Amino acid sequence: MPEQYKKRVAIFGSTGSVGRQALEVISANPDRFSVEILTAQSNDELLVKQANEFSPDIVIIGDERKYPKVKEALANKPIKVFAGEQSLQDVAAMDNYDIMLAAIVGFAGLMPTLRAIEKGKAIALANKETLVVAGDIIMRKAVEHRAPVIPVDSEHSAIFQCLVGETRNKIEKIVLTASGGPFLGKKPNFLVNVKRDHALQHPNWSMGAKISIDSATLMNKGLEMIEAKWLFNLQPDQVQVIIHPQSIIHSMIQFEDGSIKAQMGLPDMKLPIQYALAFPHRIPSTMPRYNFKKPDKLTFEDADTKTFRNLTLATDALYKGGNVPCVLNAANEIAVYAFLKNRIGFLDMTDLIERTMQHVPFIQQPSLEDYFDSDGEARNFAASLIKL
Ligand code: NAD
Ligand code: MG
User: Fold this and answer.
1) Which pLDDT tens digit goes with each residue over 208-231?
2) Which pTM does this prediction carry?
3) Has residue 384 been placed in a domain?
4) Which residues line ligand 1 (CB under 6 A)?
5) 110 and 176: one domain?
């Protein structure tokens, strides 16, 4: 494809699991995509390697102490190097790209994505926390600035794909599938002793540390319920979760006539990443195909919300709305990083989130500033609960 027709991609969070897989997709389709922006928080070596391979216009290293190293490593290349949090926002607002892959993890992804939306950019959204925290503002701005928000999260990509051709048809409900994570079927007496390395082992997906823990606690599915509410403009009672351990059906929609559409495939994030980058087209891929002759049964069961109480807390946040999902998210980020550092146990994460949700005052219709305040307050309170 001639250079001027290539989609110019900005990958925010290019050194992460989603970012790296996106670069694999782009490598396989060099005639369709060019890489214009790459960003990383601290992995300067991988960032430099990616920059050498993909020759972007700009790279950003979040950790400012690493700026001289990155700058020097790329000194003989026509690549601009920036550092720090503010440059993420400034560069997100630039004209040199068409689509942002929002693949930063956590609250940190919110502002760059918002800046891109305000410029009317297409967003391939992996960073679900952005919608959990400020879904109302994000979706309102996306409409205002005509910025398409295309989900990358596999469940939401599935729903999005099932919605093609259905714009006039009402959704009765959506069914988000969940693998159940590494501790499916386990009870609290087992979970109390779980350590980080075990919790990081997901049966079906290889992902970054935070989302792997979220999958083990089922918080990931809770965050995804809130993400789905905003993406597809649903009422809380239209969002259902079902455990499907094989991760072949990525999610489903039930329409008003009772008909159900599902999207299926092997669990490989490159598929939803590629779909979002290439949208509205489907482009060929050599990824392995699902084999119907494999004697793998597709099974479904209810989530054990008594054991995995994070899902109950997230459902509560989904129904309450306002700043509650933002508080849930902030407390969860603190809890997950404390667990990853072996500072708290697996079940302590839920207690910490619950107590933080009880502590931070409710705001019905928060402004962006309110979300920042609630996030900060929740983080401080959650951190204060962790014994040193
Ligand atoms: P990851 O931890 O592997 O990568 C995170 C990326 O964000 C890295 O490039 C890192 O440098 C950058 N980053 C981290 N903290 C930052 C900060 N404070 N400021 C700027 N950049 C920062 O995470 P991941 O697994 O790739 O997930 C990324 C996002 O995509 C998450 O929101 C996750 O929930 C979502 N997601 C991931 C998957 C998956 O398969 N990994 C699937 C669905 C959704
Ligand atoms: Mg998902």
Assistant:
1) 999 999 999 999 999 999 999 999
2) 0.97
3) no
4) 13-19, 40-41, 43, 62, 103-105, 108, 126-129, 153, 205, 207-211, 269
5) no
